[in-house]
C-alpha cells in the first residue's frame, strides 16, 4: 500500500501520512458499513486518493503563495522497467546516496513492515537511535530528490548487492521473527520470494540473483516442519524431511548448479549451495558436513562476517567434534562483535551439552534466552536450559559420588 502511494506522492513522509489517514477512514467506514470484500484494495485506493487530494491542495496553495511554498514538482515520469511498486521502493531505498546501514534499515521499515524496535534490535542500537536514522534517511531522499524509479541498466550494478541483501533480510525477518508469538511470518517470506523472482526476471544473467532465489527456496521448502502441531520449535535434526517441498528443493538445486558452473560464486550462491546440501541430505546424520565446511571456508574468505564464522563452527563441530568448534565460538565471544546476538550463546550451549558440560550449557541457554524476544524461541531455549540444568545437577551428583 505504501509503495503504491509513494508512486503518487514521490515523497515517503507524505505517502505514510496518506496511508495512516486511510486506516483512520477505514475504522470509521468499516464500523458503519462493514468490511469490504477486498480490504487491501480499498485501503490502497483511499490512500492514493488522499495523496492526490494533498497534492492538489498544495498546488492550489502554490498558485496563491508561490514565494512561501516554493516550486512544486508536478510532472513525474512513470517508471516502467518493472511493473511492481514494492521493487521500485526497494531500489529507491537502496540509492547509493544513502549509507549502507540506512538503506537496509529504511527498506526493512518501509518495504518489509518491520517495526522500528525490531530493526533497532537487529542493529543492536536503541529504538530512539534507529528512529532518528530512519528520519534522516527519508529526509535525505526528499532533499536529494532521489527519483522513485528502477534505475537504468547502467546504474543497476552499484545497487544490486544491497537490493539482494534487503530481500534476504526481508526473508530472514519472516523465517524467524525477531519478536512476537509466532516463529514464522509467512507474509514476509512469501513477499521476499516474489521479489526475488521478479529480480530474476529483471536480471536473468546475474548469478547472485539466481543464488539468492535458490537460497530462499531451499529454506522455504521446509517451512511447514520447523514447528510441531503445538507450535513448538523443532531443530533441523528433528524435522520430518519427507514433508519438505521437493519441487522447491529441485528448483533451488537447478539454480545453484547453473550459478556454480557459470563462474566464481558469490556469497548468496555459496549460502544457497550450503542450504541445498542440507535440503538434499536424506537424514541429518547423512549430511555432507565436510563439503559444507569447505563451502563455509570459501564463504568466510569472500565475506569475513562473524555470523558466517559462527555458522561455520557448527560444521566444524560435525567434522572435527564439538571441542574444536567450541574453541572457535569462544574466540568469537572474545571478539565482541556478536555481543547481543542470541545465536552465539545458543550455539555455545549446544556444544557444551554435547561435551557433557551441562551446567555450563544451562547458563549459556539462559544467556541466549535473555537476548530473545520471540515467544517460540524463548519457550525452546527455556526448555533446553531446564533440561541441561537437570542433567548438570545429575552429573554433578554422580561426579561427587
TrEMBL record:
Q: Where is the RNA polymerase sigma-70 region domain?
A: 7-59
Keyword Nucleotide-binding listed? The answer is no
A Pfam family cross-referenced in the UniProt record is: Sigma70_r4_2
* Chain ranges of the RNA polymerase sigma factor 70 region 4 type domain: 90-141
Give any single GO term for biological process: DNA-templated transcription initiation
Is this entry keyworded tRNA processing? no
Q: Which GO terms describe its molecular function?
A: DNA binding; sigma factor activity
Q: Which UniProt keywords apply?
A: Sigma factor, Transcription, Transcription regulation
> Which Gene3D superfamilies does this chain map to?
1.10.1740.10, Tetratricopeptide repeat domain
Q: Where is the DUF6596 domain?
A: 159-259
Enumerate the InterPro entries for this protein. Answer: DUF6596 (IPR046531), RNA_pol_sigma70_r2 (IPR007627), RNA_pol_sigma70_r4_t2 (IPR013249), RNA_pol_sigma_r2 (IPR013325), RNA_pol_sigma_r3/r4-like (IPR013324), TPR-like_helical_dom_sf (IPR011990)
Which family does the entry's similarity section mention?
Answer: Belongs to the sigma-70 factor family. ECF subfamily.
Q: What is this protein called?
A: RNA polymerase subunit sigma-24
The source organism is Phytohabitans rumicis
Question: What's the name of its gene?
Answer: rpoE_15
Amino acid at each position: 500500500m505504501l509503495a503504491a502511494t509513494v508512486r503518487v506522492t514521490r515523497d515517503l513522509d507524505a505517502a505514510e501520512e496518506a496511508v495512516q489517514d486511510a486506516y483512520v477512514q477505514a475504522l470509521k467506514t468499516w464500523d458503519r458499513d462493514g468490511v469490504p470484500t477486498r480490504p487491501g484494495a480499498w485501503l490502497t485506493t483511499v490512500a492514493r486518493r488522499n495523496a492526490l487530494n494533498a497534492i492538489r491542495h498544495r498546488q492550489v496553495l502554490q498558485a496563491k503563495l508561490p514565494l512561501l511554498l516554493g516550486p512544486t514538482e508536478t510532472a513525474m515520469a512513470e517508471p516502467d522497467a518493472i511493473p511492481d511498486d514494492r521493487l521500485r521502493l526497494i531500489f529507491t531505498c537502496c540509492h547509493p546516496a544513502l549509507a549502507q546501514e540506512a538503506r537496509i534499515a529504511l527498506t526493512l521499515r518501509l518495504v518489509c513492515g518491520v517495526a522500528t524496535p525490531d530493526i533497532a534490535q537487529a542493529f543492536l542500537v536503541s529504538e530512539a537511535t534507529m528512529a532518528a536514522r530512519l528520519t534522516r534517511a527519508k529526509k535525505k531522499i526528499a532533499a536529494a530528490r532521489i527519483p522513485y524509479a528502477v534505475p537504468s541498466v547502467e546504474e543497476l550494478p552499484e545497487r544490486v548487492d544491497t537490493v539482494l541483501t534487503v530481500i534476504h533480510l526481508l526473508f530472514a525477518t519472516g523465517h524467524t521473527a525477531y519478536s512476537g508469538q509466532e516463529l514464522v511470518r509467512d507474509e514476509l517470506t512469501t513477499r521476499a520470494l516474489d521479489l526475488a523472482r521478479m529480480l530474476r526476471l529483471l536480471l536473468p544473467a546475474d548469478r547472485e540473483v539466481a543464488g539468492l532465489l535458490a537460497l530462499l527456496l531451499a529454506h522455504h521448502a521446509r517451512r511447514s516442519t520447523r514447528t510441531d502441531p503445538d507450535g513448538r520449535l523443532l531443530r533441523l535434526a528433528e524435522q520430518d524431511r519427507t514433508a519438505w517441498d521437493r519441487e522447491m528443493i529441485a528448483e533451488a538445486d537447478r539454480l545453484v548448479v547453473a550459478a556454480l558452473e557459470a563462474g566464481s560464486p558469490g556469497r548468496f550462491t555459496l549460502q544457497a549451495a550450503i542450504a541445498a546440501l542440507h535440503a538434499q541430505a536424506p537424514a541429518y546424520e547423512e549430511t555432507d558436513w565436510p563439503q559444507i565446511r569447505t563451502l563455509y571456508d570459501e564463504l568466510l574468505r569472500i565475506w569475513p562476517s562473524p555470523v558466517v564464522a559462527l555458522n561455520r563452527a557448527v560444521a566444524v563441530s560435525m567434522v572435527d567434534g564439538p571441542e574444536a568448534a567450541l574453541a572457535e565460538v569462544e574466540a568469537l565471544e572474545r571478539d565482541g562483535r556478536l555481543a547481543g546476538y542470541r545465536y552465539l550463546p545458543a550455539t555455545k550451549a549446544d556444544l557444551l551439552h554435547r561435551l557433557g558440560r551441562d551446567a555450563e550449557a544451562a547458563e549459556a541457554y539462559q544467556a541466549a534466552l535473555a537476548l530473545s524476544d520471540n515467544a517460540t524461541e524463548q519457550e525452546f531455549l527455556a526448555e533446553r536450559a531446564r533440561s541441561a540444568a537437570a542433567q548438570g545437577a545429575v552429573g554433578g551428583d554422580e561426579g561427587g559420588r
